[in-house]
Amino acid sequence: MSSTEETSVGEFELLERDGLARLGRLETPHGPLATPALLPVVHPDPERQSCCPEEMARRWGVRAVITSAYITWRTPPLRTVAERDGIHRLLAFDGVVMTDSGAFQQHAYGSVEVGPEEILDFQDRIGSDIATVLDLFTEPDATEAEAAHALALTVERAERARASRRGLLAVPVQGGAHPELRARAAAEASRLGDILAVGGVVPLLERYRFRDLAQALAAARPNLAPEAPVHLFGTGHPMTFAFAALFGVDLFDSSAYHKFARRGKLLQPTGTVDLEGLREASCFCSLCSEHPLTEVARWPTAPREEQLARHNLLVSLEEVGRVRQAIRDGTLWELAERRAAGHPALQAGLLAAMARPEVFWPTEPEARRAFRETGPGSRERPAVRRFRSRLDLYRVGLGSPRTVPRMPLTPEYLARLPAQDRDGALIEWDTPSPIGPVPLELTELYPVGPYLGVDEFASPPPRLGPQELRRNLRPDPTLDVDRDWEPTWTSRQIERLLRWTYDRAVAVALAPELRGERSRRTGRLRRLTDGSGPAFVVGNDGLPRPTFLGGEHLHRLLPTGRGRVVVHADAVPFVREGRSLFSRFVVSADPALAPESSALLVDEDDHLLAVGRLQLAPLEMGRLRRGVAVRTTSHRASPGTAPESAGSEELDEDDEDEQGPPVVPE
């Protein structure tokens, strides 16, 4: 095993993620393609292109386009050039070219003059980077019998295509509005395809049936192979990109940029604007700085359409960039909610997505850096519903809670709590969060800790001074703050955080062995140590992250398989030295883990090698052949060497000097 991995055509690597949404890299015959990516639909006839692929690449860095193999095949002059010189020469484009097969024309006109084997062979001959199976387009309102028949024929065609196609193959996922058929289609496409193309949705998009689209994606998503990019046919309007990315869509295609231009419409991330009604300069992009839209509106038809098409494409590409940045920042749900606010139909689609949290939970990260509410719907995000569910289990056996006003979690404030609450009863912080009252020891966890909501500004909590605290919290006059309360609260917080992160048995066994260290500047719990050194580091997400020493404690207390990722023998020496674990060297992983969870890295005999943080979900490990599955954060140093950090946990800037060593020497 080496720190670099050889690449081959068709391999997909997940680089960063926000739940199902991901930044990835697909290897193609024309180089790597970064995803999510927009593939503009271009006509194979250069005379009918509102914006040529060469200009797209030169001006805006477009790396991939999609064109019609069927139109090329049925147009003799185009067919001759494509068969002689290849599709890339026909388009004058040296990037990635995906070709469709005529399924949409078959849907629109009732039939096509070419068979599935013939059109696939044609795509091979013209050098398509990604060829598409000629599937049977299924209308959303087709009966279950009709949809099942079309699916069976599509699978037969895909099997024959897979047997003959050596290059990348896109297999459509049909099934209409029938969840079981969508799920079956997704599983079959995953078995046969390199690109999993969710189809049959253009009528839903055209009719603004985003609720039905969400239900179709929710049915298909759990059965789509994580190692393959997902393409959503026809999602060309920029206001839909964030919504689609939530479901893990990696590739969009757009003919909307020129279709809307022909109608005199401007595409915006928040909706559509009629050029004729535009009276004010509202855009200052590079195109509009040269030719304002109010001026373009007076141009003759042909140049006006070309300029609008360029503008619509530029807006669409910018929105893909925003989606990519939101994935990096962990704020894609927020972006999707903002876009949904632009149209009630899209809001209905987002609500339908939130109604299926189980689709998102397996890849939902343990923590994000931010949670910003955009409206009441934010309180139904999958992360919130998961926290509520876990909180119900956490409260079991802790007695009736006592609710106290919101206050800073510092010893001098906590010392004002009534003495009877120091025995371990549940104390909950009445905070304006999507969850409601939350146990004090959990208020730094996601989504509560970084939560920023409307209530905080509409009804801000009172700022309690010492007099108000004494009046509201009835302090015990016999309590010595320094002597009695801080150690008591710290011990309790340690036990409760371990209970939340692992279980009661681990908390009861391990908490008495640990001592808490708090930040000198913020008062936040920062390290849990035993007699040998730091066992856990508490980062900004509030979770106790184990060092190797902490990993040894957990390895002793957790049952075999719990909290573990099992490492293949070939990678054991490298992981033991602190190297990251690549996906292809994962033997198995605890399915209860999630991205950003801390885990024990063990060999196949359950010997502890290191501690790490998951980059992939357990269901993705081993299936993605490229990329890091677990980033090693702590390992045992070799005898006679100084401790070296293999990674670190994020702390507040003020606390960086307080971070303990994550490596425990022999």
Notes on the structure:
α12 (256-262) packs antiparallel against α15 (301-329) and α16 runs antiparallel to α17. It contains 26 helices and 29 strands. The strands form eight sheets. Strands 23, 24, 25, 26, 27, 28 and 29 form a seven-stranded mixed β-sheet that branches. A six-stranded parallel β-sheet has the order 4-11-10-9-8-7. A four-stranded antiparallel β-sheet has the order 19-20-21-22. 37% of the residues lie in helices and 19% in strands. The chain has 666 residues and is of the alpha/beta class.
User: Termini, distance in Å?
Assistant: 25 Å
Rounded Rg: 28 Å
Number of helices: 26
Average per-residue pLDDT, rounded, comes to 88
Stated plainly, the CATH topology of the largest domain is called: TIM Barrel
Low-pLDDT sequence parts = 640-648, 652-666
Shape: globular
Indicate the proportion of strand residues. 15-25%
Quaternary organisation: single chain
Key words describing this protein structure:
single chain, 666 residues, alpha/beta, TIM Barrel, Archaeosine Trna-guanine Transglycosylase, Chain: A, domain 4, 3 domains, seven-stranded mixed sheet, six-stranded parallel sheet, 26 helices, 29 strands, disordered C terminus
